[in-house]
Specification:
It is an enzyme of class 2 (transferase). GO terms for molecular function: glutathione transferase activity. Keywords: Cytoplasm, Transferase. The chain is an alpha+beta fold and about 230 residues long. It contains nine helices and four strands; from the N terminus they run βαβαββααααααα. It has a four-stranded mixed β-sheet with strand order 2-1-3-4, with helices on one face. The longest helix is centred in the middle third of the chain and has 27 residues. It is globular. The N and C termini lie far apart (about 50 Å).
C-alpha cells in the first residue's frame, strides 16, 4: 500500500460524486487513507480550517497539509504518488489537455444538467431537461472514441482521470433511472459509453465506493430535495 498510516485523510460525503472520484483515485493508486464522513449541516472545525474559502468537501489532508477541490486533488494524487500505477492523467501534453477539457465539461455542463432533470417540476419539463443532458452525453460518446485509442477506458487500458470524473456521476444516473425512467447513457444512443459504464462499474477502484446501497441513498436524498423544493415554492 502507498502512503503510511495516518499520513492521508479524506474529508467527504458519501453522496457526493466529487468525493467518490477522489476515493476511487486513491484506491486506484493503492493509497492507504482515513475516510472521515462530514455532516454539512454541522461542519467540523477540521473542515472549516482546511477549506476556509469554500467550506466544502472533498478535502484531502496529506502530512497535515490540505488540498481542496476534487479535480485538483486528483491531480495532486497522481503527482504525489507518481510511482504508483496507473497514471491518472495521460503522459502526452495534448492528451492531458484533452482530459482536463472533458473533465471540466462534465463538471461544468453535465453535472448541472442532470441536476435539472432530477429537480424538474413536471414531466414535460423533465423530458426537455433530459434531452439537453442526453445531447451532452452524446459529445462524451464522441470524446471517448477519440481519447480511448481503442482501449476500454478514456484513459486507454486503465481507468484514468476522465473515467473517474464521469464515472463518479453514474450512481446518480442510476438514481434518475429508478426514479423517473430517465436513461442518460443508453446503449441505443451511446453504445460506446454504455459498454464503458459497465466496465467502469466492474473496475477494482470502484468496488466499495459505489454500491447499490449508495444508489438507494441517492434516491432517498433526491426525494427529500424535491420535497423541500416544492414546499418552498
Amino acid at each position: 500500500m502507498a502512503g503510511g498510516e495516518g499520513d492521508v485523510k479524506l474529508l467527504g460525503l458519501r453522496l457526493s460524486p466529487f468525493v467518490a472520484r477522489v476515493r476511487m483515485a486513491l484506491d486506484a493508486k493503492d493509497v492507504t487513507y482515513e475516510y472521515v464522513e462530514e455532516d454539512l449541516a454541522a461542519k467540523s472545525d477540521l473542515l472549516l480550517a482546511s477549506n476556509p474559502v469554500h467550506r466544502k468537501v472533498p478535502v484531502l489532508i496529506h502530512a497535515g497539509k490540505p488540498v481542496c477541490e476534487s479535480r485538483v486533488i486528483m491531480e495532486y494524487v497522481d503527482e504525489a504518488w507518481h510511482s504508483c500505477a496507473p497514471n491518472l492523467l495521460p503522459v502526452g501534453a495534448l492528451e492531458r489537455a484533452a482530459a482536463r477539457f472533458w473533465a471540466a465539461y462534465v463538471d461544468g455542463e453535465l453535472f448541472a444538467a442532470w441536476g435539472r432533470v432530477m429537480m424538474a417540476a413536471t414531466e414535460e419539463e423533465r423530458a426537455g431537461r433530459a434531452a439537453e443532458a442526453a445531447e451532452m452525453v452524446a459529445h462524451l460518446e464522441e470524446a471517448f472514441a477519440r481519447c480511448s485509442n481503442g482501449g476500454a477506458f478514456f484513459g486507454g487500458d486503465a481507468v484514468g482521470y476522465v473515467d473517474l470524473v464521469l464515472g463518479s456521476n453514474l450512481f446518480w444516473f442510476e438514481a434518475l433511472r429508478r426514479m423517473f425512467g430517465v436513461r442518460l447513457i443508453d446503449e441505443r444512443r451511446t453504445p460506446l459509453l454504455a459498454a464503458w459504464a459497465e466496465r467502469f462499474g466492474e473496475a477494482a477502484a470502484v468496488n466499495g465506493v459505489v454500491t447499490d446501497t449508495l444508489v438507494g441513498m441517492a434516491v432517498e436524498h433526491a426525494k427529500k430535495l424535491r420535497a423541500a423544493a416544492m414546499t418552498n415554492k
